[in-house]
Design goal:
The complex is a heterodimer of chains A (206) and B (264). By secondary structure, chain A is an all-alpha fold. Chain A has eleven helices and no strands. In chain A, helix 3 packs across helix 4, helix 4 packs across helix 5 and helix 5 runs parallel beside helix 10. The longest helix of chain A is centred in the C-terminal third of the chain and has 25 residues. With 264 residues, chain B is an alpha+beta fold. In chain B, strand 5 and strand 6 form a beta hairpin. Classes of the chains: A mainly alpha (206), B alpha+beta (264). Chains A and B meet through helix 1, helix 2, helix 3, helix 4 and helix 5 of A and helix 1, helix 3, helix 4, helix 5 and helix 8 of B.
Chain lengths: 206, 264
């Protein structure tokens, strides 16, 4: 997702940041230390969300790197209370902007439900006898991950934020920029879709 | 309550988002309605299956290294000396505000630092949170791993200058995982480790040198919630990424259990 010039810009940014540090002294060091302590523990969580939003490991890596770059840049404006939702909101914007540029609405965080559903054949319609389906059942974690990934975007995002990233309704509402009521209805919808997909997939196993 | 209302609230119920009154209403309806009871059971079953599965992805190590390496270098010796100078010590904080003058002097020197460290409670909270984060990062949450309080408590003997109360709250939803020796500003403190679902809770216990400070203070830093109170000559810090209400519940249960020991 990040092309080469962007990577170079990233490197240049870190370097200039480092130089500023040697000149500027402690406040900058302290800022960097606080950023590291605050943001790095959430790296796995941010990457997890990126994987579910983008459904592609390479794109997820680029998005996470860009997310941390932006987070450090805007760390001074961070006022808490919770670091994780703040990082998620940044990640979501990264995904949105990148994919709007590529004109691939389905992968964007705000992508439409119908396009996604049309592009991704639901898992439960796969031939149950296919070797792939057999393989899925071997790995329960992989099986559930794929069920979640097959959900259309706003529902996938909401259930991942709730069940995998463990955010409260209020935090999900803040990250996704919708009212709590919308979070609740999306979550209910997501669970009911997941439930039927699950039952259908269970039903196809011999 | 009708079934349509109930169906929406079932989700909030299993997510722990309902207040006690609504939760009672929903439970009362479920008790009399087989349809909604079935839905609740199905939702709970799915919730449990999701909770049991490992649905997280670990960040690839080369990406982690890339991000870590890109962060400005932080551990040069000159820096740590300076940090020491203006960071209030645990003893200073716990034992009244003897170091206040030193701290103020340090702050006067670096006005920028005052923005972050103008409050000793925040400063010590920062260290407590850092200790919590370290315990999670290093994969070194426990030195002694036991769910039995009679194994954990004696382990601290001779390692710290306090005998921390170790209370088993497993039956009340907070699993005792074990204990750890930790350092806050180079002073050894006892850390008793609990778990609620997938959240680790560190309960730091240290000797109190100053006046009693019975009221609990609540704060949050870097996304972690902190509860601080003192009782029976000991200072307690509970730190977790757990929901604030659940952390309050934890503190309430710990405090309630302390009373029979005469540590009110």
């Amino acid at each position: 997702m990040l092309d080469r010039p962007q990577s170079q810009a990233l490197r240049a940014f870190w370097t200039s940041e480092r130089e500023a540090m040697t000149v500027g002294g402690n406040p900058e060091q302290d800022r960097a230390r606080r950023f590291r302590d605050a943001a790095l523990p959430h790296l796995d969580e941010v990457f997890t969300l990126a994987r579910y939003l983008l459904r592609n490991p390479a794109d997820a890596e680029d998005a996470v790197q860009e997310c941390y770059l932006r987070a450090l840049r805007h760390f001074d404006s961070y006022r808490g209370p919770a670091m994780k939702p703040w990082l998620f909101a940044i990640l979501r914007n990264v995904c949105k902007v990148e994919f709007a540029q590529r004109n691939r609405p389905d992968a964007a965080a705000g992508g439409g439900e119908t396009e996604t559903a049309a592009e991704t054949p639901p898992l439960w319609q796969e031939d149950p006898a296919s070797p792939e389906a057999a393989l899925i059942r071997v790995d329960e974690n992989g099986f559930i991950r794929r069920l979640i990934e097959a959900l259309p975007q706003p529902f996938r995002e909401t259930i991942v934020l709730r069940e995998v990233n463990d955010l409260s309704y209020q935090q999900i509402a803040e990250v996704t920029g919708v009212p709590v009521g919308t979070v609740m209805s999306r979550l209910a919808r997501a669970r009911s879709m997941l439930q039927s997909a699950w039952q259908a997939a269970e039903g196809t196993t011999p | 309550m009708n079934c349509a209302d109930c169906e929406v609230l079932l989700h909030a119920l299993i997510d722990g988002e309902l207040d006690a009154g609504h939760a009672r209403d929903v439970e009362a309806h479920v008790a009399t309605c087989a349809g909604c009871a079935g839905k609740l059971n199905a939702l709970r079953a799915m919730r449990d299956a999701l909770a049991a599965a490992d649905l997280k992805y670990a960040v690839p190590s080369q990406l982690r290294r890339r991000i870590e390496a890109a962060l400005p270098l932080l551990s040069s010796p000159a820096t740590s000396v300076t940090h020491r100078f203006w960071q209030p010590s645990r003893r200073a904080f716990f034992g009244g505000f003897a170091a206040g003058a030193t701290l103020s002097a340090a702050l006067a020197v670096g006005a920028m630092l005052a923005v972050f460290r103008n409050d000793q409670e925040v400063a010590i909270a920062d260290q407590v949170v850092s200790a919590h984060i370290r315990s999670l990062q290093a994969g070194h949450l426990m030195d002694v791993e036991a769910s039995d309080q009679h194994t954990v408590k004696p382990w601290f003997e001779g390692k710290v200058d306090v005998a921390p109360p170790v209370i088993d709250l497993t039956a009340q939803g907070f699993t005792l995982l074990g204990g750890r020796l930790d350092y806050i500003d180079a002073e050894p403190v006892a850390a008793v480790v609990y778990r609620r679902r997938k959240h680790a809770i560190n309960l730091f216990v240290a000797r109190r040198l100053g006046a009693e400070h019975a009221n609990m203070t609540a704060s949050s830093l870097q996304g972690y919630n902190i509860r601080h109170w003192s009782s029976g000559g000991l200072d307690y810090w509970a730190v977790s990424d757990l929901d604030p209400l659940e952390l309050n519940e934890f503190v309430k249960k710990i405090s309630a259990a302390l009373r029979p020991f005469g540590q009110s």
